[in-house]
Structures are given as structure tokens and as C-alpha cells.
Amino acid sequence: MDSLTFQIARCKHWLTQHALPRWQKAQSNQTGIFAEGLLSDGQQFSDDLLRFRVQPRQVYVFAHATELKLIDGSHQVCVAIDKGFAHFGSPSVGYRFSLSKDDDNNSDAINLYEQAFALLGFAWHYKLTSDNQSLVSMEAIYQHISTDLWDTKRDGFFLTKGNDANKGQNPHMHLFEALMVSYEHTDNPVWLERASTIYQLFKTHFMQSDHLAEFFQADFSLDVETGTHIDPGHHYEWIWLLSHYQKLTGVDVKNSIDVLFQFAQRYGHNNNGLVKDEIYANGKPLRSTSRLWCQTEYLKACIALWECDPSDTHRVAISQAVEHIFVHYLNPALPGLWVDQVDSKGEPSKEDSPASSFYHLFLAFSELFRIANKD
Fold it and tell me: Which of 17, 215, 256, 324 has CA 20 to 30 A from 96's CA?
């Protein structure tokens, strides 16, 4: 068994024997709401804050896991869709950021980010169940954000309903992902056309001369305070998304991928190989900690690059990326849990396991399973 074959096998074992069974229990049958996360001892986070984004992300995990026959998570998916989502809002009026004991304005906010993941959740529910009501919900979500969040003067979506001052790369990126998934699961070309709108925004606004920018004012000029703050992990996430977009459309994205990869490789890693959380646009470190999700996006990017060029170099990079995830994030935790963040030396700084990270882990590992048949 070679290194990559071993890594794929250990990921499948970790998911099927530990992570999926453990997290399958972290949902209320009464409310349909998934737990915000699990503490390092396996107990659930308090319910003082329940973010909506966790709900569709977990729907994705268990729908995809069911499709891959890793576990039967159909009950979890359907309970979340039938009961859980409704606690946060609806497709036509939007899903609020969170349920919070403090119940402040941030909790009530209707953000593009949450709506993008709602679309992803319903798309995967439709894939699993063929329930036409999810098609209706998907369209309602898109019509809602097109009406309430789209900037009719300068294009692009605002971050938050009622705030016409700020835009961000990240929620557009996740909408891009959800739109492509919606196309794949419905075969309706309108979803790919909508995804192409986001691709155009990427080319004209998000992508700078040598890096991906994150934070903007309404006219897409860089935010005065945070415009130079850069996430290397998002560079890798876009590499994977652009590669996927090219498969669906035939659009040549090689130049963008090359620029993103060169910048992230040059400035985005600590000496231990882990991807940094945040840097400045000039390459200097801003936050040299390393969250788990940044490593899973690097893994996905390595897989995308290997598919374009199946060289030994890219193959080794895939294996090393998986190894880093196990050594620094999975092995130090209880089986099926993870350390969410380590410091610049690789030592745990946040040992609890937010549920939102499972989406990143599962998607990256599912990409490994997909290429296993190609190798």
C-alpha cells in the first residue's frame, strides 16, 4: 500500500468508524437543530449560541455521506430540513445568523453567507430525496438574495440585508459553490448561468494582480481598514472551485489558478508547512495561527492540481496535506473530533471541535475518495 492509498484508507476509517457516528448523535430530534460543536471531552457546546450556517453544513455532510454509503444519515438530513431550518427563518425572507440567548442585532442579521449555505443544504436535500419542495426553496432563496442583497448599481451582493456599504469575497465564493452544486444536482442550466455571474465578479473585482482580496466597500474599492487582510486558505479554496468550474463550463482558468497558488505558496505557510490563518497583501504575517479549515482547502487544491497534472510532486503534496491534518488536528483529539486551531509551532490553541468545520473535512476527504478510482 503506497502513501496516498494509505491516506485515503485512514480518512475513510476515521469518518465511518468515528466521526460520522459521533456527530450523527449531535442533533436534537425535537427541534431538528444540530449542535454548534463538541467540546474536547465529547460534550456538546452550550446552546447559548446556535449559528444557522452549521445546519446546512451538517445537512451537506450527512447527505453526501449517505450518497457515498458511508453511513445512513437520511434521518438527520430530513429532520434538519423539516424542523431545524424553520427556527432560523425561511427561504423567502432569509435565514438569520443565529439563535442567541443575547438575541442582539448580529443574531437577527440576514447575511449573504447564511443564504449561500441554505442553498447548498436544500440542493443536497434534493439530491438525496428528489423532493420538489427543495427545488422551490432553492429558487426562493435565490430570488430573495437577488431582490434584497444585490447591488443594482454596481453589481455584486452586499454582505448583509440593510447594509449597503460593505461587500466581501467569502460569501460570494460560497454562493459560487452552492450555485454549481445546484446545477449538478438539478441539471438546470440556469444555476450554472448564475454561477458564471459570480465568476465574472471574481475576475473583475476579487482577483487583484497577484492575490485574492477579501474585504471591499460598496464600489468594490478595498476596505480602508481591512482591504489588505488576506486569507491564504481562500486562495486554495478558489483553486479548487475554479478547477470545478472549468470542468462544468470549459472556461480556461489556468492563469488565475497559477497566480493564486504562487502567492499562497510564497507567503501563506508557516515553517511547519501549515497554512496560516491570515497575512497582509504584502506577504507579512497577520495571524500565524493555523485553523483546520485552511488545511482542508489546501488539500482540495492539491487534488485539483494533481488532476490537471498527475505528477509525483502533486501526489506527494496530497499525502503530506492529509498527514498534516491527522498529526496536528485529528490525532490529538478524541476519535471523531478535531483540534480546530494550532499556533505557529503546531501546538493546539483551540482544542474544541466546532461543527462548522466538519463540512470542510468531509468535502476534502470526499475528494480523496473520488480520485481513488482515477489513481
Answer: 215
**Residue by residue, what is the 3-state secondary structure of 150-173?**
ECCCCCCECCECCECCEEEHHHHH
**By the 8 A CB rule, do 26 and 20 touch?**
no
Helix, strand, or coil (residue 329): helix
For residue 344, the tally of other CB atoms under 10 A from its CB is 17
* Paired sense of beta strands 278-280 and 285-287, if any: antiparallel
Using CA atoms, how far apart are residues 112 and 157, in angstroms rounded to an integer? 7
What's the pTM value of the predicted model, to 2 decimals?
Answer: 0.98
Helix (H, G, I), strand (E, B) or coil at 322: helix
Distance CA 89, CA 370 (A): 35
Residue-wise pLDDT for 194-207, tens only, equals 999 999 999 999 99
| DSSP type of residue 45 | P
Express each pLDDT in 177-227 by its tens digit. 999 999 999 999 999 999 999 999 999 999 999 999 999 999 999 999 999
pLDDT at residue 102 in the model: 82
